[in-house]
């Protein structure tokens, strides 16, 4: 999975964000990124805050362990999930897709 990278600090996700969606959801792969749909608009950091909250909830992590590395004003973002392996995140995302991971 090219959108998932293991680092000494944790796991880095390459994401493609779709703001103003009808529901928050992980949609699937988009090139070398994971496509994430968010209800929040891309105004005043609302989509970034919604992304951090959504990923923390989807990966069962505290929000403090989800850090936006790059892409603050872009649809393409890199996010660090501190202290968790890529294998653990991969299994959580795949399990979430099978359950129809859609959080509002």
DSSP E strands, number: 7
Mean pLDDT: 89
CATH architecture: 2-Layer Sandwich
CATH class: Alpha Beta
Q: How many distinct folded domains? A: 1
N-to-C series of helices and strands: EEEEHEEHE
User: Which percent band covers the strand fraction?
Assistant: 35-45%
Helix content: 25-40%
Distance between the termini: 26 Å
Tally of individual helices: 2
Low-confidence stretches: 100-104
Could you describe the 3D structure shown?
The structure is a single chain. The chain has 104 residues and is an alpha+beta fold. It has a single domain, classed as Conserved Hypothetical Protein Mth637, Chain: A (2-Layer Sandwich), CATH 3.30.1200. 25% of the residues lie in helices and 37% in strands. Strands 1, 2, 3, 4, 5, 6 and 7 form a 7-stranded mixed sheet that branches. The termini are far apart. The relative contact order is 0.24. Residues 100-104 have low confidence and may be disordered.
Main attributes of the structure:
37% strand, Conserved Hypothetical Protein Mth637, Chain: A, 7-stranded mixed β-sheet, 104 residues, alpha+beta
């Amino acid at each position: 999975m090219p959108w998932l990278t293991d680092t000494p600090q944790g796991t880095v996700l390459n994401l493609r964000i779709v703001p103003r969606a009808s529901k928050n959801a992980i949609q699937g792969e988009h090139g070398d990124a994971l496509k994430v749909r968010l209800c929040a608009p891309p105004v005043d950091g609302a989509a970034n805050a919604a992304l951090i909250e959504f990923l923390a909830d989807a990966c069962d992590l505290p929000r403090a362990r989800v850090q936006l590395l790059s892409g603050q004003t872009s649809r393409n973002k890199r996010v660090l999930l501190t202290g968790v392996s890529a294998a653990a995140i991969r299994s959580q995302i795949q399990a979430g897709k099978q359950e129809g991971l859609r959080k509002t």
